[in-house]
Design a protein that fits this description.
alpha/beta; three-stranded antiparallel beta sheet; 11% strand; six-stranded mixed beta sheet
């Protein structure tokens, strides 16, 4: 038994000829009859060509996206299903293969045209065509749709039996369905340039980007310069309200940070956490808030690196550093690099673990409780842990934590630790152990990867903190409320 490639090459040549005739709106009198195997071959061939075109269009330093490949496969499958509905059964594989070949030819021309035009002299379209430039884009699009309909009609005329109206109806249905699928499909590029903008990927991302821009346009204008100039006075006002320590028993000073202005949940969590801590530890009257939120931009100092260092310095001047404790609570988004400090239209930076440790060490603050509610917050553990410190984090150094969506009152970590576990008669270590179990249960129910909250309890600070719990039977702690959703 011998195998000859000649019949296969003949069918390929016949199908390409059919696609090329369709380009000029001509029907093929004797179209080739293809089977499922040939259709699969054309799907693979045209997909490879399309991937090559995408790589070419992405230019140098193209970035591969597996989700783009998934989107391409799903889109192609959707178009094939549409074709199955409208193509006549006897020539179904032929029509679908010819459509793939035709679309690939269009892709090649579309990719080559900008390259070719870049090597031609500049042409003033208004002088050549007599139309204004602002109309040329719409005119080209309209001409393309007219041509595409005529080309698809030529393919249907080649394989469909019946009158012209039957062929026209099939063509119109197929053309409309493929347009709707292509227009509404959530495309992603398989290869993207480094400056690729997600808003250009598909109609849904474009609508999302437009909605974000509308929200930004409706926000009150923030003068970054004026905000920066106001910070020293706002911080001085906040520090001036602190109650100095009047005895030698030791007390707790607190700095609370809501670091990300884009979600209200962090301000809500800051307020709730300080309220919960005020029920078990004597922090009332000794708390400074640093907040990134538009509603408080003129009322509270921002959560910035400069304000953090200045607040620690100011609090350090009031503390008895041998006896008093600094409690630092931070809530925001996080990354493996650290803790996000973002105030939209003003500035953004990352507060790194070594920077926190350096600021506290330089100020000579040795007794410290640091609680970080953020993704990857475990990165803060090692730089801050010692015998005189307690460090609690919402996750380990390589895991995300959950619950930071804008409509929530708490993150998972904040809800479990402050809202549920921490109460009068329960110390921080007991509350953390309970919270860790609650979080594991929530993540398991939601099929989420474990965040693995971390803790370090330095023996010396645990002992120093022990009598202070007894002083905190109740403490009404005022909270500045974030806007409700």
């Amino acid at each position: 038994m011998t195998f000859s490639i000649r019949p296969t090459l003949t069918r390929i040549r016949q199908l390409l000829a059919m696609a090329l005739r369709a380009v000029i709106w001509r029907r093929t009198a004797e179209p080739p009859v293809l089977g499922l195997g040939a259709l699969i071959g054309w799907v693979i061939l045209t997909s490879v060509v399309e991937l090559a075109i995408a790589l070419f269009n992405a230019g140098e330093n193209a970035q591969f996206d597996i989700y783009g490949l998934n989107a391409l496969i799903a889109w192609r499958a959707s178009l094939l299903l549409v074709g199955v509905i409208f193509a006549p059964a006897a020539y179904r594989a032929t029509l679908l293969s010819a459509s793939l070949a035709l679309s690939t030819l269009v892709g090649i021309v579309a990719a080559a045209t900008p390259y070719a035009l870049s090597h031609l002299p500049t042409v003033d379209l208004e002088k050549v065509w007599g139309i204004e430039a602002r109309y040329s884009g719409g005119a080209v699009t309209a001409l393309y749709f007219i041509w595409a309909f005529g080309a698809i009609f030529a393919l249907f005329r080649s394989v469909t039996v019946g009158g012209r109206w039957n062929k026209l109806a099939r063509t119109a249905g197929y053309f409309a369905a493929t347009f709707l699928v292509t227009y509404g499909f959530p495309h992603l590029p398989v290869f993207a340039s480094p400056d690729f903008q997600l808003a250009s990927a598909n109609v849904w991302e474009a609508k999302r980007a437009a909605a974000i821009e509308r929200v930004r346009a409706e926000r009150p204008h923030v003068d970054a310069g004026q905000v920066a100039l106001a910070q020293p006075a706002l911080l001085d006002t906040a520090v001036s309200r602190l109650v100095p320590q009047r005895d030698h028993t030791g007390g707790i000073y607190t700095i609370g940070i809501a670091g990300f202005s884009g979600e209200d949940v962090f301000l809500r969590e800051l307020n709730g956490a300080l309220g919960a801590l005020g029920q078990v530890l004597p922090i009332d009257g000794r708390t400074v808030r640093l907040v990134n939120h538009l509603s408080l931009i003129n009322a509270a100092p921002l959560a910035s690196m400069q304000n953090f260092a200045a607040a620690v310095h100011a609090v350090g001047k009031l503390m008895n550093k041998d006896e008093d404790i600094l409690l630092l609570f931070m809530t925001s988004h996080g990354s493996p690099d650290g803790f996000a400090l973002v105030m939209e239209d003003v500035g953004r930076t990352t507060l790194r673990p070594d920077e926190v440790a350096s600021v506290l060490d330089d100020e000579g603050i040795k007794n410290r409780i640091v609680i970080v509610s953020a993704c990857y917050s475990g990165v803060f553990l090692k730089p801050l842990m010692n015998d005189n410190s307690i460090v609690l984090t919402a996750s380990d150094e390589s895991s995300a934590s959950f619950g930071c969506s804008n409509e929530r009152e708490w993150t998972y970590f904040g809800d479990a630790l402050f809202n549920r576990a921490l109460r009068p008669g329960v110390n921080l270590q007991q509350a953390f152990d309970q919270a860790k179990q609650m979080i594991a249960g929530l993540e398991s129910e939601g099929n989420l990867p474990p965040s693995n909250p971390q803790a370090h309890f330095g023996a010396a600070l645990v002992e120093k903190l022990r009598p202070l719990y007894l002083q905190a039977e109740s403490s009404p702690f005022p909270a500045v409320r974030a806007p409700t959703k």
